Amino acid sequence: MSQTWLVVPAAGQGRRMGADKPKQYLTLADGQPILAHTLARLHKAFPDAHLMLCLDADDHWFSPRWVPFTHWQRVPGGRERMDSVLNALQAMAAESDDVVMVHDVARPCITLSDLQALYQATTQNPAGALLAMPVADTMKRADDHGKSTRTESREGLWHALTPQGFRYALLRRALETARQKQVMVTDEASAIEALGERPQLVSGRRDNLKITHPDDLPLALAIMTAQAADRA
């Protein structure tokens, strides 16, 4: 029986937030940091999973009390997201067919239903799967001066979200190949695609917000409050 692994890159500094600490340590509901809320959501869906938490070597804000998992390991974060994830993969005692799901630490609003749907799609598709949303807005192409030059067709376009899930051997090969070829990938799916594989797109909820800018904090809190009311 395959094991489930969760990789959470959390070594970023979040400079666009303009805060005095990395964004994953800014507080949301109940005075808990974003990191704690994200890990709690993942634990609820996959309580028996093994967590690989990628943290900066000089991170002095982190506290183990925010980790609800029994099986977890801290691994060094890298300069880029790809480096952090690859560090985690190389530190795992995983089998080739084990499921590895990578999730942004700054997405604390992920729901149980989306996590379960992504896991199911990952196990059913050899090339893995990722949560995504069909593009709903009109897309514009800008020039070097920020002026709109044309309208792009949004047909077939999706916003990539996380988690993204793949078999261990495939994901490790994809990221190691990208590193060898010095190709910088912005998510795991793009590394898989570079091998000629086609991950399955799983339509996810639009409230799976990634906290990036200061005004995302109150929005995330509002989303979590609404989600709690729905569950009640």
Commentary on this structure:
The protein has 232 residues and is α/β, with parallel strands linked by helices. Helices cover 31% and strands 22% of the residues. It is built from six helices and nine strands; from the N terminus they run βαββαβαββββααβα. The chain has helices at 34-45, 81-91, 112-124, 168-180, 188-194, 216-231, and strands at 4-9, 50-55, 72-76, 99-102, 129-134, 139-142, 148-152, 158-167, 200-203. The strands form two sheets. It has a seven-stranded mixed sheet with strand order 3-2-1-4-8-5-9, with helices on both faces. A two-stranded antiparallel ribbon has the order 6-7. The radius of gyration is 18 Å and the shape is globular. The two termini are 35 Å apart. The model has no long low-confidence stretch (mean pLDDT 94).
